[in-house]
Amino acid sequence: MRIGTDVIAIERIDELVASETGFEEQVFTARERSYCRRRRRPADHLAARFAAKEAVLKALGTGMAAGMEWTDIEVVNDRAGRPTVRLYGEVAAEAERLGMQQLDISMTHSAGLAIAQALLVWNQ
């Protein structure tokens, strides 16, 4: 098993979305952006998803390696509302190389911070 954890100030993501042209599209999939924009406090949800993406990369042990895109990691909710992760592109290829069997995430936001943890189960 591998664990990845990340924390980010919600204000930082809010500032990047407001000031960096294309940031939101570069980092979040259309489905993620749509979900977050429907929430009362979109920045909280965007920040939690950003932290989740970082946590997944840390659990993989790669960071943002060559060829990987932020949108290769997508956080979606299942029918019960529980967040799950879908992997695409080079991130999915790395998970396959590791022999990933399961990837689970947990996210929260409070007091101006978003925190996420990823747990990866894999074969050696």
From TrEMBL:
InterPro entries: 4-PPantetheinyl_Trfase_dom, 4-PPantetheinyl_Trfase_dom_sf, ACPS, Ppantetheine-prot_Trfase_dom. Pfam families: ACPS. Its EC number is 2.7.8.7. Mg(2+) binds at residues 6, 54. Residues 2-102 form the 4'-phosphopantetheinyl transferase domain. Its main location: cytoplasm. The keyword Magnesium applies. It is found in: Cytoplasm. It catalyses: apo-[ACP] + CoA = holo-[ACP] + adenosine 3',5'-bisphosphate + H(+). One of its GO terms (molecular function) is holo-[acyl-carrier-protein] synthase activity. Its cofactor is Mg(2+). Transmembrane segments: none annotated. Keywords: Cytoplasm, Fatty acid biosynthesis, Fatty acid metabolism, Lipid biosynthesis, Lipid metabolism, Magnesium, Metal-binding, Transferase. It is an enzyme of class 2 (transferase). Belongs to the P-Pant transferase superfamily. AcpS family. Transfers the 4'-phosphopantetheine moiety from coenzyme A to a Ser of acyl-carrier-protein. This is Holo-[acyl-carrier-protein] synthase.
